Amino acid sequence: MPFLKTPEEITSTSTTDRMSQDRQHENGQLNIHTLPAREEEFVKDEYEDEDEDDFENECGPLRKRVDFLARLPYEVVDMIISELSINELLVCLDVSPKWQELLVEKRQHIWREVTLDHENYQSVSQLNLIGKHIRKYCLYFACQEILDGTVDQILSGSMNKLESLAWDCSDFSGRDVIKCVTLLQGSLTNLELVTTQDTRYLLPFDCPSLPSILNACPTLERIKVSLHSSEIQSNHLKIPRGSKLKYLHWNSGESMTLQEAEDILDACPSLVYLNIGCLDGPVPLSAFRTKCPTSLSYLHVDTGKSSSYGWSCGTDSNLSVNGLQSLSTCCINNEDWEELQTVTLMDQSTLQDMTVCHNDSFDLGGLLNIFKGPQVSLRYTHIYWRQRAVIIATTKNISPGENDETSPSGVITSAFERCHKDRHIPWFINSLESNAHARKVSKLSFYNCGTIDWHIPQLLQLPSLQELYFDGYGKEIGAVAGIIDKLCSPSSTPRLRHLYLGPVQGLTDKVVPRFAHIRGLKHLTLSGCSEITDEGIYSLANIDSDLEELSLLNCLNVTPQAIKYINQQLERRKQQMYM
Fold first, then answer.
1. Are the C-beta atoms of 394 and 414 separated by less than 8 Å?
2. In a domain? residue 567
3. I want to staple 253 with a disulfide (CB 3.0 to 4.6 A). Which of 64, 229, 464, 468 is the partner?
4. In angstroms, rounded to a whole number, what is the distance separating the alpha carbons of residues 546 and 522?
5. 10 Å Cβ neighbour count for 243?
6. What number of other Cβ atoms are within 10 A of residue 93's Cβ?
7. Number of domains observed in the structure of the chain
8. Alpha-carbon distance 572 to 560, whole Å?
9. DSSP state, residue 207
10. Which DSSP symbol is given to 401?
C-alpha cells in the first residue's frame, strides 16, 4: 500500500518548493522553460512596451503581467468599460498603447459625451486623442487650464464634430465663444451658457449677443443662456432670416429690448420653445402671443408691469391652428390678469401646462375655471426664498358627461415662502373649494409647511378629499395630537382614506392609538418617528378600527415582531369585515 501524506505534510512540501524556486529565481538559476505551460505564456506580456526593459533592470524581472482586456470576450470588456466614469476612462488611456487603441479606436461610442471639471483638468491634453469622437462636451466648474485648453483644441480642429457645447458654472469670454461656434458651424446644433449654482455675488459674465451667436453659427437649433448677470456688447448685427433655431432660452441677466424680441419672432419661423427672461418695457401678453410663429408650443415671457406699449393684436394673427401647449408668465396686477385670461382662452383647447408667478391678489379660482389643462404651477413672487414650502393638489377634472373613472387627472402645485403659510394655505384651499364643481381634489400634499393643524377643518370641507400627506410636519407632540383630534371630530365626514405623517419626532406611544379613532381611515404611513416603540404599535393593533394597512418607514425603535403582529391583526380584521 503506497504511503499517503497527511494534509499538513502536503502543505509543508508545497511551501518548501515555492521558497526554493524563489531563491533560484533571485540567483538567476531558475530556467523559465521548466515552468508549466500555462504559466509560461503569462510570464512575458505580449503587449510589452519598449520601456519595460529599463523597468526590469531597475525593479527586477517582470512576472505574470496579463492584459485582461485582450483576453476577455468582447461582451465582458464592454460591460467593464460601461461601468467606468469619464475620469477613469481618461486614466486608462495612459496604461499602454494597446489600451489606448482599444478605447479610442474600437470603442468610439464611450466618448460621445464628455464633461471636464476642476478635478480632471490634467486630462485636457488628451482631447486631441478623443476629440474627433466627442459629440456632446461640457465644461463644469472648469479652471482656467481647462478653459484655455478646450478653446485651443477646438481652434486646432481636433473637436470639429461637436454637436453640443456647454459652459456650466464656468467663466468664459464672449470672444472665445464666438471663435468656437464659428469653427464648429456645420456640426454644432446646441449651445449652453448657464450657471446652475447661486452666483449672485460674482462679477457679470462677458456674454455674446444673440445676433452674434447666430451669425457665427447659423446651424444652431438650440440655445440656452441662463446667467445671473452679464455685460453684452452692443452691435449692429441682425439675426439672419430663416434661422433654424427651434429652442431659445435667453435669460442673460440683462433685459432684452422689444425690438430684439420682435426680431427673434420674425427671423425664427421654426421656434417651438421660447423663454425670454425679461423684456425692457411693457407689452401686452396677448399682443406678444399673436406675433409668435405658428410652430410655437411653449412660451415664457416677463412682459413688464403695465400694458401701455403700442403692440396690438390686430386682424392679421399668426396664431397656430394647434395652439400653445405650455405657458409661463407673471400676473401681479389687474392688467396682467386680463391678458392672462385672453391668452388662456385663445389656446384653451391645447394648453396642457401653465406656470404663473403671482402675488396675494391672484384669482386662482378664476384661472381654474377657464384653464382645462392638467398641470398648474404657482410661484409666489419671491425670487430667492429662505425656506421654501410646497403644496401639491391632485385633482380630477370633471366635464359634463364624465365620471371620476374616465375624467383626466391633474396636478396643481403652489410654492411659497414658509413664513407666509398662515395666509397662503387658506387662500389656496379656498380657491380649490370654489372650483370644486370642475376639479375634484382627491389628494393634498404639504412639504415643509410646518404645523398646520388649525387648517384641518378647512381641508375637510373639500368634498372629494381622500388622502393627506404631511412631510416636514411640526415636531411638537401637541401639533401631532392636534391634527388627529381634528380628524377624529364628530363633525368630520369619514371619507379620508390615506394619511401620511413624516418625519415626526414628537409622535409617541401615547398618541399612536388615537389614529384608530379616525373614522374611515384605511391606510396609515408614519415616517421618521423615532420615539415610537412596540408598545404603541401593540396598543394600536388591539383597538377596533377601520384601518387596513400600516406602513412604518425609518421608525428605528419598532421591532419586526411588532410589525408582524399588527399586520396579522389588520389582515384578520379585514377578512372578518368582508366575510
1. no
2. yes
3. 229
4. 6
5. 20
6. 18
7. 1
8. 18
9. P
10. T
